[in-house]
Amino acid sequence: MFLHDLLTSRKILLSLTGAVALVSAPAWAQQNAPSETARLAEGINNNSAQPAQNQTEGFTPLRAQGTTGQPNPQNEASEKMTPPAELSSAPRALTPKNLMNMPVSSLPSIADLVENVSQSVVNIVVRTESGETTSEGQGSGFIISDKNEVVTNYHVIEGGNSINVEFNDGQVYPARVLGTDEETDLALLQIKTQEKIPHLSFKQDGDIRIGDWVVAIGNPFGIGQSTSLGVISAIGRERVDSGNYVDYIQTDATINRGNSGGPLFNLDGDVVGVNSAIYSPTGASVGIAFVIPHSTAEQVINSLRTDGRVRRGYLGAALRDAEFEIEGQPGIFKAGALVNSVVPGSPAAQYGLQVDDIILRVNNQAVRNAVEATRVIGEMQPGDVGRFIYERDEKTYALNISITERPDKHEVETAKAITQGMPPPAPKQPDRGTINVDTGLQVLDISSEFRNAIKMRSDQVGIYVESVTPGSAAESAGFKMGMVLLEAESEPLAETDVLRTVVLNAKLDEKESISLHVRLKDGGETYMVLPL
User: Fold this and answer.
1) Alpha carbon distance 495, 111 (integer Å)
2) Mean pLDDT calculated for residue range 198-203
3) How does pLDDT run across 289-306, given as a tens digit for each residue?
């Protein structure tokens, strides 16, 4: 799994596989009385002429009839397991009037929407074996077709040896990978069951707009399905991670680690995006989350369903935004994509493109920068002939180039590094981002916001148990994911390194176990013995 260093890029992938600070639940979810933000979500159905129960009519609760695959006939809609966006009996209400003209008390609730769509949102548990070590990570996903296909992020399942999909009612099914696309951080799975399960649909009509209400549902920190409400804050964010092939939606809906791969809904129950990453200087949610747009996601998922991968055109030239110098001062940008290096044997090399050529147009489409050029080339199919208009030594030329298929991301990065005289990247290795202290516990530092959210005392510190190695002595001793370790041998655990030190010192003293003060999931506290 890939996680950026918080002190450098400050962007965190959201699967439960990295060692970053845990994030608190939204403030309005921690108080008995809802804040203004929460009240903004109350009563959407009050604006509808239909009774509230019509919102769920025709949408059979998941596995309400058992696991035989033969649901009791209720009505035609339930037999077809129609997704929420297509319910003929449910009003498409959930679209508020101008909020500026409405009192807060009259604004609607999203409860019916959440009830309808949440049964199609799943938790994804990925087990990875590396030598003698087994680790477990978690993320989110959602059912997208009547063939029980599941959409999630690539980084959620990357390197996994086994994948299970868990529903909110506790049902768990094994899953197989139908296809992945690292460039856009998307993956398509399929669960192994004959049962018909309600599925969701990507948004099909109309544009999304900044300010539109959205709902995020997922499984943050593995604590269980959670819902948050927000708005679309920005559209067209580039260079978050998948860079060249994704213009991200930005939202302030509360999204945390473990939400990776989960859906972002509009108020009609359509999927408008796939939650992928957050930006944070501390690891705590600061209301900046990045979402893969529905249009990109649907296009990629269709390719994965058909071919198991996305076939993109490949030129074989590393590109950067064109710039020129004035009186020796660089940094003045101009339209176009400058060829920074050419991969030997690639189409660019075979057809004569050179370093410092500036690509101006591809197939009669102007390109303003390297990202646009890469996307236009990527949209071409292997074997297509592209017409390139480029500038060399302030003169303009035209060249027809036969495009080949783009290799996987690691191969592209390796070739780019070699042509630029840089060391190639290290071979891909599963990176779970957790600290294994050789006790069977994978632990994470936690933030003050998370400590407040779970109502730890202000004088307490602790570290979070992200996972417990199956079959380990720690599992046998009763340690479970979600516990908070407060003290080890009476030493407060302010960070994971403290536990590591205590364990190492205990081993040097040839101790067989250490005593831990532990906070349980229900808030209770106890002392437990951790075998070494």
Assistant:
1) 38
2) 92
3) 889 999 999 999 999 998
**Residue tagged active-site, from 260, 303, 341, 447:** 260
pLDDT 10s digits, 241-259 = 555 788 889 998 888 878 8
Domain coordinates in residue numbering, the chain: 11-118+200-307, 121-191, 313-419, 435-531
State residue 521's pLDDT score.
85
What rounded mean pLDDT belongs to the chain? 76
Q: In the CATH hierarchy, which fold is given to the domain comprising 435-531?
A: Pdz3 Domain (2.30.42)
Q: Is 155 a catalytic residue?
A: yes
Residue 525: how many other CB atoms lie within 10 Å: 13
Domain 313-419 class, CATH top level: mainly beta
3-state class (DSSP) for residue 225: coil
What are the E-state strand segments in 256-315? Answer: 263-265, 271-279, 289-293, 313-314
Cβ-count burial 379-405 (b if 16+ within 10 Å, e if not): ebeeeeebebbbbeeeeeeeeebebbe
Annotated active-site residue in 24, 48, 112, 155 = 155
pLDDT category, 26, cuts 50, 70, 90?
very low
CA atoms 498, 499, 500, 504: torsion sign: positive
On the question of pLDDT at 14 being above 70, the answer is no
Instruction: Report pLDDT for 80.
Output: 43
What band does 92 get if pLDDT is binned at 50, 70 and 90?
A: very low
Q: 129 pairs with which residues across the strands?
A: 134
Asked if residue 59 has pLDDT above 70, the reply is no
CB 159 within 8 A of CB 197: no
CATH T-level topology, domain 121-191? Thrombin, subunit H (2.40.10)
**Which pairs count as long-range contacts for 453-456, CB under 8 Å and 24+ apart, including other chains?**
453/24, 453/25, 453/30, 454/484, 454/519, 454/523, 455/523, 456/484, 456/519
Burial degree of 137 (CB within 10 A; 0-12, 13-18, 19+): buried
User: Is the fold of 11-118+200-307 the same as that of 313-419?
Assistant: no
Q: Which CATH superfamily is domain 11-118+200-307 in?
A: Trypsin-like serine proteases (2.40.10.10)
Catalytic-residue membership of 185: yes
Amino acid occupying residue 170: G
Residue among 185, 252, 357, 445 flagged as catalytic: 185
Query: Among residues 66, 46, 42, 64, which one has the least CA distance to residue 55?
Result: 46
Give the pLDDT mean for 315-321.
Answer: 88
